[in-house]
Design a protein that fits this description.
With about 525 residues, the protein is α+β, with helices and mostly antiparallel strands. It is about 20% helix and about 45% strand. The strands form seven sheets. Strands 1, 2, 4, 9, 12, 14 and 15 form a seven-stranded mixed beta sheet that branches. Strands 21-18-17-24-27-26 form a six-stranded mixed beta sheet, with no helix packed on it. It has a five-stranded mixed beta sheet with strand order 16-11-10-19-20, with no helix packed on it.
Length: about 525
């Protein structure tokens, strides 16, 4: 073992922060001697995973790493070095101890005096009984003596209760002060780790060492800040980094990765899935059972989960790097690290889906020009008036379109009314369900507004999956007819409203089903 009084410093130079852990890399230049030697380096985090420890020397030096291991030492809690002047906290504890001792002595004296008064009262009552039995009658003296004893017992009893109450509160205060002094004036217990490195060098000289290992208690998540200024939008991509590994990361090369090293790599097991065909019964052939079902339009990315979500990387490991070295203290708090920023034109619209919400929302659309994929995460929304709320950004590939909602507009009001009528027509008793939806849109504008605004209204129409049910839009009855109806049955109107304007949009469609259809 090296006889150096202090271990060789082994600073953190590079960190790859994964989804729930970190890969730490340390580099140092060693002054090796010829022959086999064992060096002590550190300190390092005691949370380092031993089986991931790897050390290698520079190839230009004739030296070989024979063994590397982490040795942990536990330093118990001990008192701090004493000084000439006691601290204010220690003097406070000393004052409380003296006051408790004085109160304890006074309590004991009061208990003794009350005990003597109790004996005096018993003797006085015995004397009264004996005197009354022998024919003596001195009521004035007996009353005076009894009153004096009772008054003294009441007075000293009240003093005893006050002393005991003060003594109880004093004991609690002293215990708290001692606990605080115990924490403030004693060295905390510490678990430290050092690296013991055994190397064999053919010749003496300097050699570079690179040591790496995994460490838990570190993670990162993406975060964004969108600033909307007129028709342009600035999107800042940041990373929120937490780490409590027991050491600070100072001016390190930080790499943020979405790789999940903890996931198993075994392929899924293949189980038998047998399909069987059965003949339909006569009742099943006569009827068609249908039902109205709501389907959410599929989007890229995993389903949302409760709690702290993982990083949605679109199924492919992504790597992000800050443009400059960063420092992350090991305090367990969130630290924001800037990654990238870009400014682009962001045309917007006012959109509303009255079936879901009566609010009109400002929505902007732009392309991802950051040069890397935008991972799913929260985004702080900032408009000209300041912070307006927080939204969510979904996974977006480089160059793909992005859609962000910047909150609702209070100067719009939307009211939705729906009616339904059902009747049977024809000889086959075909069931026809007619639905009428009316959307009333109003705009309340300030006196200085003169521009018109276009609101995109969206209303859904059922989409039939069976030939026995037919869905048909009555364009003649609609006022006005939808501008477009997509394959998912979403009807859209672009309604232009002047300041203080009002519009009513009517949508009429019918569901037609044969007599053998049930459940409609």
């Amino acid at each position: 073992m090296s006889t150096a009084p202090k271990p060789i410093a082994l600073p953190v130079t590079a960190v790859t922060c994964l989804e729930d852990r970190a890969h730490i890399e340390r580099t140092v230049v060693l002054d090796l001697e010829a022959g086999v030697q064992r060096l002590r380096l550190g300190p390092v985090s005691a949370l380092a995973v031993d089986r991931t420890l790897h050390a290698e020397l520079t190839a230009d030096h004739p030296a070989t790493v024979l063994d590397v291991r982490i040795v942990r030492t536990w330093t118990p809690r001990g008192p701090l070095s004493s000084t000439d002047d006691d601290s204010a906290l220690r003097r406070r504890v000393h004052t409380l101890e003296e006051e408790r001792l004085t109160l304890g002595q006074r309590r004991d004296r009061l208990r003794t005096r009350l005990d003597l008064l109790g004996r005096l009262a018993a003797d006085l009552l015995r004397e009264i009984g004996e005197g009354a039995g022998s024919g003596e009658s001195d009521r004035t003296r007996w009353s005076r003596e009894l009153d004096r004893v009772d008054d003294e017992r009441a007075t000293y009893g009240e003093q005893l209760r006050g002393a005991e109450a003060r003594l109880a509160s004093l004991s609690a205060e002293l215990g708290e002060a001692e606990r605080v002094m115990h924490l403030a004036e004693e060295e905390p217990a510490e678990l430290a780790g050092h690296v013991e490195l055994t190397v064999e060098a053919a010749v003496a000289g300097p050699a570079g060492l690179r040591l790496s290992h995994l460490t838990p208690c570190a993670l990162w998540r993406p975060a964004y800040r969108a600033v909307l200024d007129g028709g342009s939008l600035t999107l800042e991509t940041d990373a929120m980094v937490w780490q409590r590994t027991g050491e600070d990361w100072s001016d390190v090369r930080l790499t943020l990765s979405t790789a999940r090293s903890a996931l198993a790599t075994e392929p899924p097991r293949l189980d038998e899935d047998r399909l069987t065909l059965t003949d339909r019964s006569a009742a099943e052939r006569r009827t068609v059972d249908v039902e109205l079902r709501e389907e959410e339009i599929g989007a890229l990315g995993p389903a949302p989960v409760l709690g702290l979500p993982g990083v949605d990387d679109g199924g492919e490991a992504r790597v992000l790097r800050p443009p400059a070295p960063v420092s992350v203290p090991g305090d367990g708090r969130a630290h924001r690290v800037a990654l990238s920023a870009f400014t682009t034109a962001a045309p917007g619209e006012y959109a509303c889906s009255p079936e879901l919400s009566p609010l009109v929302t400002r929505v902007v659309r732009f392309d991802n020009l950051s040069g890397h994929a935008l991972l799913a995460g929260p985004v702080d929304l900032v408009r000209g008036t300041g912070f307006s709320g927080r939204g969510t950004l979904d996974f977006t590939a480089p160059g793909a379109p992005v859609e962000l909602a910047f909150g609702s507009c209070d100067d719009f009001r939307v009211v939705r009314q729906a009616e339904e009528s059902r009747n049977s027509v024809g000889i086959s008793q075909r069931t026809v369900v007619t639905r009428t939806v009316r959307l009333h849109l109003s705009r309340f504008s300030a006196p200085g507004e003169h521009d018109e605004r276009v609101v995109a209204l969206r209303e859904r129409i059922p989409v039939s999956e069976v030939s026995a049910v037919d869905v048909r839009l009555h364009k003649d009855a609609c006022a006005p007819a939808p501008d477009v109806v997509d394959a998912e049955g979403i009807a859209r109107w672009d309604v232009t409203l002047p300041p203080g304007g009002r519009r009513t949009v009517t949508l009429v469609y019918e569901l037609s089903a044969s007599a053998k259809v049930t459940g409609l």
